[in-house]
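Complex record, two chains
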Amino acid sequence: MTFVAKPRVHHPRLPVNEIGLTRRDYEGSVSTLCAGCGHDSVSAAIVQATSELSIPPHRFAKVSGIGCSSKTPSYFLNKSHGFNSVHGRMPSVMTGANLANRDLHCIGVSGDGDSASIGLGQFSHIVRRRINMLYIVDNNGTYGLTKGQFSATNDKGSTSKKGVPNLYEPIDLVTMALQLGASFVARSFSGDKKQLIPLIQAGLKHKGMAFIDVISPCVAFNNHSGSTKSYEYIRENSGSAMAADYVANAQEITADYEPGTKEDVNMPDGSVLRLSKLDASYDPHDRVGALSYVMRQQEKGDVVTGLLYVDPEASDCHEIMNTCATPLNALNEAELCPGSDALAAINQSMR
Amino acid sequence: MPMQPTNIFDPNYFHKVVDCQWACPAHTPVPEYIRLIAQERYTEAYMLNWDSNVFPGVLGRTCDRPCEPACRRVRTEEKPVAICRLKRVAADNKGDLKDFLPAVPTQKNGKRIACLGAGPASLAVARDLLPLGYEVDMFDKDPEGGGMMRSQIPAFRLPIEVLQEEVDLIVNMGVNTHYGHEVTSMKEMLDRDYDAYFVGTGAPRGRDLDIPGRAEVDDHISIGIDWLSSVAFGHTSKIEGNVIVMGGGNTAMDCCRTSLRMGADSVKVVVRSAFEVMKASDWEKEDAMEEGIPIINNRPPKEFVHENGKLKGILFECVEPVKGDDGRIKYVPTGEEDVFIEADHVLMAIGQENHCPWIERDIGIEFDKWDCPILEEDTLQSTNPKVFFGGDSAFGPENIIWASAHAHKAAISIHLFCSGQDLKTARPPEGVNLISTKMGVHEWAYDAQHDGSERFLVPQADKRKTLSDVKLEVELGFDRDLGSQEAQRCLNCDVQTVFADKLCIECDACVDICPMDCISFTDNAEEADLRGMLQAPAENVEQDLYVSAQLGTGRVMVKDEDVCLHCGLCAERCPTNAWDMQRSVVHVPQLGSYAELDLIASAR
């Protein structure tokens, strides 16, 4: 929380993107989260990523649930559409928004409490339904807003600030998403924007649901020596399996890499996602392999980050349902009510 | 070689961040006095200035303001804080100074000092020395003290009362004045056996122009500074006909504006060079043009045209500036026909020079080929160890604020000389003190919030009145209200962002919040490379990079000082207090300075 407002003045040589806006035009109001909160870095990464994509801010829809994480949409893209919904119900609201206007770029922000506890059912089903959105979980393993109880993603044996260990097994949203058929699964760390920003950009361009589990330390309640979600623990125990770089224009690519270590994945809009394997044995298109790799590393206490699985050919919910290309909210009355003859024809076809 | 961690205890490091103070020859603590003005503590603000630059009322109207182009606000927005005119606000609104003035001992220390000239440099030396018990004799040919501040600056820019008050403030500390006493022989002065001499006689000779017809029209030509002086002392009360002012400096601007008020039918300024390279300050050019005086550029004079000694006008060549291969500007003829401009009177304001015919050349004071004394730059001591120089007489024409700066330096030298100490090694050291401004959660001892207001304009008196009265001050100055609004524009550059690497957890909160993208966490590198690796490229190499020791991840924190707003948001957002906003107090060596800033700020 700060009482000094962020001045509007910016660096005189701040770059502008293709539509003439600076990064500052993608910011929101000043954060009221605790100073040093990882969530603020995630918001900053979203600001950076979206401004670099040169998408007009008003073409985004941002939806969240309840919790520290879910406050953050106020802190980015303040010229976009937003909905701060009910606890755990971001997926429902986002589904509605995306169905009504398929042209919007959808960003859902949730937390470990919001997605892994009260909203676990919602989480499972939005993965299954492949809503075309970027789903970010700000995962800090604690209920910060209610002063530091363990959340469902807190590792067994990890301690509270007072030193009391957690007795329960954690829910891992990454492996769950893989199991439920997600077509884009990544994990990152709020303290590593170099990794996070391209993942956000790729996630936004991916068709279908892109899920990023961002470990985002809670400085107030879960950043101590007994925690497995502290800045220090993650820096020491995380390793990237697959680095991803987002390249807006495929023509910029000059191929000069060892075969087998890098791969360019074409995105639907002509941009390219460039993957570099940091572990040669890893295959980001092998769902079962990814699942087992992540779980093996987890057993050793290692946190795997990077782009873990991607299916560039995947379909999204509009494709599955075969909806029309025009966003539903843009259909006029004549299109929505084609008249009694059309109704009669439909009825006839079902007889 | 990667960059070494910045040593913030080097007195110059944070001093440089306070651009205005660094640019000021006297190193006046600008942000501190602006804060005092914002707090309506005008007397304290005045004294802080008085201590450092000696003539706040005069300088608040006439300073060349090297601080303003340096102001960070030029780089973050556009227009600098009106530092100079805020100084005037302090001077205009100050209260009783009695309790603030340094005590002058009645028991003298037995050392006698002669100050030659009663201009700003000599007065400032006297002020610095008197509190230490020195006896100061001051000699000047004019009937009153003030030197060029009185003789060359017209009263419509500097009212005589303002000057008188500040001269008296020093003289009343116990200077033995010998006005109307023109020193004609330095040898004779040396025979009087003072313990030390300070020469502050300025650059009193105005340049002349040797072109055809000059000798014949002598009656119609005046040297600018001499003419201004005769106006100031009431010897000249009018000028008639068409006037041409030759020259592009501040003296030219004063000459043309004075002529306009003294009854000239028309006044034109004609300058040899281009408008942009004129020596006059931008605001003085603007003021002259505002009064309807044309400034004609790129016209070198060829000849005075006359009829039997009666001046008709001047013939000018037409040239244009061309950038040569060496990057220097040359003026080449345009081929246009020469221009004739009518004139009945010409004022020459084409420069001044040192001129000390009264210093004999066989008394151990050596001069260089430009007729400037050979001085030890750090001490201002001449080749005669007893004799010190300062102000314009030292290195040629500068300005009042340089005179104050020289005076402080010379006073230290004189004191060391008189007490038998080494003039170089025994000088008081520079220093810096850092004081946290953190008062509590989200509370800082300064107004951290950035104020986006544009620079406020200084109100002026009605032109119909000012143009007919040479003594009526044109600028009205900021009133208290405007002054406090303008004061809010100051960025408080002396409240420094101090980084404690051991406390940092590299959470990026400061990077994310910084409105100016000043802060980066990056691998270390050579400075030239590092400048390109930051959140925003640090292209202004005049401004330092603040580099921390290596952090936990092997990276370093790098802060580009260039456009920092000192808004304190990094410290606000830091979860571990690794950032703190600390006020830097720079100790500029100065004799007789009772003024630890904090003493003034906390007085009463």
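Note: The longest strand of chain B covers residues 579-587.
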